[in-house]
Amino acid sequence: MPVHVAITRKVLPGKEEEFTEALRKFLGESFSHDGVHGAGMITALPGTGGREIGILRTFKDKAERDAFYHSAVFKKWEAYASTVTEEPVYRDLTGLEAWFRSPLPPPRWKMAIATLCGVFPTSIFLSFTIGKLTQHLPLLIRLFCIAVCMVALLTWVVMPVLIKLLKHWLKA
Question: What is this structure's pTM?
Answer without folding.
Answer: 0.55
